[in-house]
Specification:
The complex is a heterodimer of chains A (about 550) and B (about 350).
Chain A lengths: L1 H36 L11 H8 L1 H34 L5 H11 L4 H12 L4 H10 L9 H25 L3 H9 L4 H30 L2 H6 L6 H10 L6 H29 L16 H29 L1 E4 L2 E6 L2 H10 L1 H30 L3 H15 L2 H11 L11 H26 L2 H9 L4 H29 L5 H4 L7 H11 L2 H26 L7
Antiparallel strand pairs in A: 1-2
Helix pairs in contact in A: 1-12, 1-15, 1-16, 1-17, 2-3, 3-7, 3-9, 4-13, 5-7, 5-13, 7-9, 9-12, 11-12, 12-17, 13-23, 14-23, 15-18, 15-20, 16-18, 18-20, 19-20, 20-23, 22-23
Chain B lengths: L9 E5 L6 H9 L10 E2 L2 E2 L10 E4 L11 H10 L5 H14 L15 H13 L5 E5 L7 H18 L2 E6 L2 H7 L2 E6 L2 E6 L1 H6 L4 H6 L4 E10 L2 E6 L3 E5 L10 E8 L4 E3 L6 E10 L3 E8 L4 E7 L11 E6 L5 E4 L13
Parallel strand pairs in B: 1-6, 1-7, 4-5, 5-6
Antiparallel strand pairs in B: 2-3, 7-8, 9-10, 9-12, 10-11, 12-18, 13-17, 14-15, 14-17, 15-16
Chain lengths: ~550, ~350
């Protein structure tokens, strides 16, 4: 009896502590933002003026429409490209299969705006490819700026996400389902449409939601390549940051609208996917078979071509980092000057990035393990609420969370703005879900009886957790942590709002250098960032013995 | 190998895992290519016919129920591809739902069905298209013991009712005996014995079949022949004349392997026969199983109808004879059955 009470206390206390953390650093800031959007900034009276302003001016409505257009198109196009790609990779034996998978993964791991600025260097007005075509063929390419550019950049960025989701789903499709369809006379396209596609639909919906939210929240890409084509995140950022004419309250109001919109989409997706959900597990998964003839060649060409295009921006950035620069422009010849500049002027950002990312990661791992444990093993009203809190980062764009944190913790007693702590808090909240999800997933697979066995042998609750449960969870925790890590070091939308000179990260530095036109230094920093990302992934793959990272 | 399956027959491929029975079934279905030889339905060679055109119904080991379709959707799936009017499809589906007794679940999703119900859906889906051949690949292996017995009876009843030619794959010999008209016992891709369940149990073609089907004891012995009459010698003190033996190349004395099923031993009251010592006993109600050691040290299992008297206790010595009309006598290699099959 005594033991049960004690166990109840420990885990309840842990749940409560985490709950307070979320209330303080997520619910409270969002609530503050909501309040702010309903009160006039100067007079302090209740007012709907901000919302009236937003919905009455075409300028703002256009931005909203633009955002929706970009988001819907990116999501649809990503699914359209990623699904056949995943199907090809799962059914046809491709030479260098696992290398290709890693390269596709890497292509999604950089900050989207780096892709944007690299595509400007390639296809922009003075882009290498644009110039080449102009000089050789004598005609001007349609330019990349605006909607097209955002669509290209974000789609290339998002395809790998859906690709990995669908690849995972295809692994769970039993070969016998395909054979059953064949034996009933379905083949080719009909078999895809009637059997395979419905089977991966729940996965497509899940992956689609992730892409939708990311595309909706992305701020760097439209900022760089959008030019006149403004989206809502750009609008919010400008309202909030600009020294003159900006208005925190208005930025808050737009944020509220975006969060509401995202919430509706999120709930809609949950509703639809709950109705369509089923579980699959394959005794005999679909195997990649060696094909011959035209089909084989086409499959190889398609996959290699896609991989090349996806990696092209990063490869080109790496290439330009070794070019000689004169002031802001690249000149003939090669040099390491960009790297020397990168280290001498802003070398501190690398140390900053590592410090912030490592501290955040430690907190994330700790919290994720505890949250996963209480939400999986100790289901009650408190932990259920906690579970819902952890999903918030999906629907709250990074820049909005940044603004909410900043307006909430700008004054005493909790004046956190400008500190490293506020950066760490934002990283933790935004990147926790990856590690929680993978930890919870592995915990679901661990039979609860194992813990009961340890307890029946006389181990205490805590001893059981640390000696039995935790060691069995490690693989899951690590695979999520690597994603948290990579997404922290490439994070832009929150840090751009929260950073100060002392807490500037590599990603923010790249962004500011790109904005200033210091492409050489930006390229050098990007290369360093890419290197860190790739090494992290390779170390992870080596350590875990896996061939790919599952999302 | 060459074999012919009759129309309407329930034919079973039986063998240990890895014996090639599933491969053979998948060749019939068209999922594995046929490297040599031909498979024909009636007169039609189907080697090059694609699976969808063979008009087969297949029940998969894991059922392969489409998880995104309802019970009705799953069963109608094969019909929808055949340009049959909607009303007819609905009628056919309703009929088959009644036959397999899952009408009440027709609008459910597969995840809300028990294993036995899923099994019935898989069965209904396979037979609703009126296939020429119904193929079943270990359809009961994922069910628990009791359900397995219920389902195998249901399958047999259904097959009899619909009159569909069926090829059934299993590694469970009891299941095979229960459902089949004929069984092919396979090992390493070769058919060891082809026959009715009764033939296979009572006159197994070789020692492998004898041990694979049911339980048996393999005892070494000597077959002696005097003036055309055979006598079987087991151990030093026991010999019994046997009449139903035919040896291709008769010799005065032959080393043989004898298959004696547990129920083919008789305990003698006088002290004649094979001397054996009780090791332990298992009381199973109708029968009592004794594990005994022969003088050679070999452990044997014998079954006796349970008596009201005391069960023999470990260490007691008993004397055994065999039922000569039932036992099987093989050559020394265990490949050839000397017992005449006519003499059942």
């Amino acid at each position: 009896m005594n033991d049960t009470r004690k166990r109840f206390d420990i885990w309840t206390n842990i749940s409560l502590l985490i709950f307070v953390f979320y209330i303080l650093f997520l619910a409270f800031p969002l609530f503050t933002m909501l309040i702010k959007s309903f009160y006039n900034g100067t007079t302090g009276d209740f007012s709907l003026a901000y919302f009236t302003k937003f919905f009455s001016k075409p300028y703002y409505l256009t931005a909203l429409f633009n955002s929706i257009k970009v988001t819907v198109c990116v999501t649809a196009l990503s699914a359209l490209i990623a699904t056949p790609l995943a199907y090809l990779m799962s059914t046809v034996k491709i030479k260098g299969n696992s290398t290709i998978r890693i390269m596709i993964l890497i292509s999604s791991m950089s900050a989207p705006f780096i892709g944007a600025y690299s595509w400007i260097l390639l296809l922009g007005r003075n882009g290498v490819i644009t110039q080449f075509i102009k000089n050789v063929f004598g005609f001007t390419m349609p330019d990349i700026y605006g909607f097209t550019g955002i669509l290209v950049v974000l789609t290339l960025q998002m395809v790998p996400l859906i690709f990995m989701y669908v690849s995972g789903a295809l692994k769970n499709v039993d070969q016998s389902l395909m054979e059953a369809a064949e034996s009933m006379g379905y083949k080719g396209f009909n078999k895809m449409r009637k059997v395979l596609l419905p089977l991966i639909t729940p996965t497509l919906l899940a992956g689609g939601l992730l892409v939708f939210m990311r595309a909706l929240a992305d701020f760097g890409t439209p900022m760089l390549i959008g030019e006149g084509f403004k989206t809502v995140p750009v609008l919010i950022f400008n309202e909030f940051i600009s020294e003159v004419g900006g208005d925190d309250g208005f930025a808050a109001a737009i944020s509220v609208i975006v969060v509401l919109f995202a919430t509706v989409i999120f709930l809609l997706q949950k509703y639809v996917s709950n109705r369509k959900s089923f579980t699959m597990s394959a005794l005999h998964p679909i195997e990649a078979k060696k094909k011959s003839g035209i089909g084989n060649i086409v499959a190889h060409v398609v996959i290699y071509a896609y991989t090349l295009i996806a990696l092209l921006p990063q490869l080109y950035v790496i290439y330009t980092s070794f070019l000689k620069t004169n002031g802001r422009i690249f000149v003939d010849g090669y040099s390491l000057q960009s790297y020397i500049d990168a280290f001498s002027n802003i070398g501190g950002v690398i140390a900053n990035t590592f410090f912030l990312a490592i501290v955040s990661l430690v907190v994330i791992i700790l919290l994720a393990i505890l949250i996963a444990y209480v939400t999986v093993r100790r289901r009650n009203a408190l932990t259920n609420t906690l579970d819902i809190f952890t999903m918030f980062p999906y629907i709250v764009p990074g820049s909005i969370l940044g603004i909410a944190l900043l307006i909430t913790f700008n004054d005493k007693p909790l004046a956190l703005s400008g500190t490293a702590l506020i950066m760490i808090i934002s990283f933790v909240i935004r990147r926790l879900p990856y590690t929680i999800r993978s930890s919870a997933a592995i915990l679901h697979q661990i039979n609860g009886g194992i813990e009961e066995a340890a307890i029946s042998l006389g181990a205490s609750q805590m001893r059981t957790f640390f000696k039995i449960t935790l060691p069995m969870m490690v693989a899951g925790v690590v695979s999520g942590a690597i994603l948290s890590w990579v997404t922290i070091i490439t994070e832009l939308s929150t840090s751009i709002i929260l950073y100060t000179g002392k807490t500037k990260t590599v990603t923010v530095a790249i962004y500011t250098e790109v904005i200033r036109g210091n492409y050489g230094v930006a390229a050098a920093l990007s290369t360093i960032l890419t290197l860190i990302t790739v090494i992290s992934l390779l170390v992870f793959l080596k350590l875990s013995g896996q061939k790919e990272v599952s999302l | 190998m060459s074999l012919e399956i009759k129309k309407g027959e329930f034919f079973t491929l039986l063998g240990p895992s890895g014996c090639g029975k599933t491969t053979l079934l998948r060749m019939i279905a068209g999922f594995n290519s046929i490297e040599g030889g031909t498979i024909s339905f009636n007169e039609r060679v189907i080697n090059q016919v694609e699976p969808g055109k063979r008009n087969i119904g297949m029940v998969f080991q894991n059922y392969a129920i489409f998880p995104h379709l309802t019970v009705k959707g799953n069963i109608a799936f094969g019909l929808e591809n055949r340009k049959i009017p909607k009303e007819q499809i609905a009628a056919k589906v309703d009929d088959i739902l009644k036959v397999v007794q899952i009408e009440q679940y027709k609008d459910r999703m597969p995840k809300n069905l028990s294993g036995g119900q899923q099994q019935r859906v898989a069965l209904a889906r396979a037979i609703v298209i009126r296939p020429d051949v119904l193929l079943m690949d270990e359809p009961l292996s994922n069910l628990d013991a009791k359900l397995r017995i219920d389902m195998r009876n249901a399958i047999k009843d259904l097959q009899r009712e619909v009159g569909i030619t069926t090829v059934y794959v299993t590694h469970d010999q009891e299941e095979a005996m229960a459902v089949s008209d004929r069984i092919a016992v396979m090992k390493s891709g070769i058919i060891q014995h082809l026959g009715t369940p009764q033939e296979i149990y009572q006159r197994p073609a070789n020692v492998f079949v004898a041990t694979f089907i049911g339980r048996t004891n393999i005892i070494e012995g000597t077959l002696t022949q005097v003036e055309g009459r055979y006598s079987l010698q087991i151990g030093s003190d026991y010999a019994e004349p046997v009449s139903n033996i035919r040896v291709p190349k008769p010799q005065a004395s032959l080393k043989v392997q004898i298959s004696v099923r547990p129920e083919e031993f008789i305990m003698t009251e006088d002290q004649s026969g094979i001397r054996a010592t009780i090791v332990h006993s298992v009381f199973l109600g109708q029968n009592t199983h004794y594990f005994v050691d022969l003088e050679s040290g070999q452990r044997n299992e014998i079954t006796q109808e349970s008596k009201t008297s005391q069960i023999l206790s470990p260490g007691e010595v008993i004397y055994l004879k065999v039922k000569t009309d039932k036992i099987n006598v093989y050559d020394a290699a265990g490949e050839l059955n000397y017992t005449r099959s006519g003499q059942l």
